Amino acid sequence: MSSLCFWCSAAVATAVALSILVFFQFFLKNKSPSSRISHAGTPPGSRGLPFIGETLQFMAAVNCSSGVYDFVRIRCLRWESGFTVFVLTEALKITCKAMCKMLISLEEENEVEMIQKDVGYVCEAMLAFPWRFPGTRFDAGLKARRRIIKKLKNIIQKRRELESQYEDFLQRLLMEEDNGEPLSDMEIGDNILTMLIAGQDTTASAITWMVKFLDENQDVLQNLKEEQFKILEEQREDNRSFLTLEDVANMSYATKVVKESLRLASIVPWLPRLILHDTDIQDYKIKKGWNVNIDVRSLHSDPSIYKDPIKFIPSRFDEETKAFSFLAFGMGGRQCLGMNLAKAMMLVFLHRLLTSFRWKVMDCDSSIEKWALFTKLKSGCPILITPLQSS
User: What is the pTM of this model?
Assistant: First the structure.
């Protein structure tokens, strides 16, 4: 009887092993690079897993925030020649890298990538319900914040021990005093984290919308190209491959494009403010201590201020706008500290994109992320891109 059980078990094990072998042979054949190459009469793409195809990916998409929309969009991109990049993804990398370099002189790729991801978690936590349970967005944001602060404290402590001077934001904070006392490591870390949060996602989102608006307004794009290629020609005449402050200052039309993109997108749609004293606004009494929100989006789309407010018209900034009518960076004592930095990054991005690549937006959907701290395109703005040298 025991020998019979042994042989039965052996037969079952052999059958299972053969089944697994056949499965992996079929799987490897199905997932080989050749299966993704479009032969004559065969559409591009992947057949997915044996028997079930891409059902698992489809079901996962149905139950995630992006939905079936994202599942279909990614597969549509396979039909185009050239290569596709998501503007939001690349812009986040660029802005985070620039912020880390200018704030703390950090350029190590892995550490910059870690900070970028953790800043993203912190931003998501700001709109999450404050439940400190493992697995929640709020808990993930708190953990990410602790990791960033720990990293910043290590950098600050090392910097205090060095006699050499750096030319960055951290060095200026180390030299600052509050009532005769130097700023603590925690105060410096909080200031740098605030700058990272404010500068990374907002600028990247603004760049994404700007690319989308330009693709939808080819006349504006053509005018912008003429300006940027003229600057490129001046660079070549001077035998240099980099932009100068003078070049950026000469981007008058690009500056209007940036302002119009910020107006129409309203990356920061509202500004929270604390009322410092009793006041009257249009016969309404606003009490001291109240928290109010300035509706930036409504202001930027007010037809009494901007003619054809839903149209992308950079030339509307040929003349000075009304006071307090453009609040992309706030106004007054609470105006964004990184305003000029954000504008400069957007201008440099525009120059490099227009003078180095031929591109077109592959997804014109204007849907906005529901759970985002700033106005962010849900699609990420995929563009088909081709280097100009090879086009």
Answer: 0.76
